[in-house]
Specification:
Number of strands: 2
Distance between the termini: 37 Å
Largest sheet: 2 strands, antiparallel
Order of helices and strands: HEEHHHHHHHHHHHH
Length: about 280
């Protein structure tokens, strides 16, 4: 009878094994071959890993991916937490504000890219037109220096709502007693937020950090839909690189090698965040 609850988990475990574990094992297996679609494949051991890890372009792409993930996560969590803290204190009109802030989260990634490709277009975009009045001009997606910040801005605009709604829910669940006691003792709003509110939602903050870190590391749609990794390798990410290698160069085994290395990084980060959460 003690084992009965585990039987209820069996369907979920089977689905997870089929949708996650099987593709990972499949990728690990074929990363050891030289497979360019078709039936022919030659076993080459770890050669794909050696070639990939010794490729300078690959490390540029890794750097791009982590730069994007770091700054996107930083600004999304910072802005999302600040918005949640501020709106949690608003009594009138908070429902309308929450609804408006959630609108970007309802839009698909490819729709976001199409929207901003029009708004930032140098020929007829509204943003370059407005910036021209103060003497500013930039090729947002075509400039080597401006492309990455523009992609980061798009993701921040799109996904900050996710951080906001999770943190706001956590703040709403905090009991009033500790806050009222702190106010009686003369604590300021900043001190209440720093020493009571944020520590009590620490687990949620780590959860949001894990979700956003993984999501930004596997960025694909907003990069592919705007710059397709360009100009040059300025915005090329691991996911777009793996897609290009598989479907443009037909090097499936190399693409799977990229995904295996990416999976190892994600697993490592998840374990690291879990350890940090326990230590803190």
């Amino acid at each position: 009878m003690k084992q009965t609850p585990y039987y209820f988990l069996l369907p979920s475990i089977l689905i997870l094994a089929f949708t996650s574990l099987y593709p990972i094992c499949y990728s690990v297996y074929y990363s050891l071959f030289n497979w360019r679609w078709g039936d022919e494949k030659d076993f080459i051991g770890l050669n794909n890993y050696i070639v990939l890890l010794s490729d300078k372009e690959f490390w540029i792409i890794v750097k791009n991916t982590f730069v994007f993930a770091f700054f996107a996560c930083f600004f999304e969590i910072l802005i999302g937490v600040l918005l949640a803290i501020y709106i949690d204190r608003i009594k009138v009109g908070s429902t309308i504000i929450r609804t408006v802030l959630l609108i970007p989260l309802m839009i698909s990634g490819i729709s976001v890219t199409m929207l901003f490709k029009v708004m930032l277009n140098n020929m007829f975009g509204i943003i370059p037109y407005l910036l021209s009045f103060i003497g500013l001009k930039s090729d947002f997606f075509g400039s080597y220096t401006a492309a990455m910040p523009t992609i980061i801005f798009l993701d921040v605009w799109w996904q900050t709502s996710f951080v906001f709604i999770i943190i706001l829910a956590g703040l709403k669940s905090i009991p009033n007693e500790p806050i009222e006691a702190a106010k009686i003792d003369g604590a300021t709003e900043w001190e209440i937020t720093r020493y009571i509110r944020l520590p009590m939602i620490r687990s949620l903050l780590f959860l949001v950090l894990i979700f956003r870190s993984i999501d930004t590391l596997k960025v694909f749609d907003i990069v592919w839909g705007t710059t397709a990794g360009g100009p040059g390798l300025a915005t090329e990410a691991l996911q777009t690189y793996a897609y290009r290698v598989a479907y443009s160069f037909l090097e499936m085994s190399k693409s799977m090698t990229v995904m295996v290395l990416f999976s190892i990084v994600v697993i490592f980060l998840t374990i690291l965040y879990s350890r940090l959460n326990k230590d803190l």
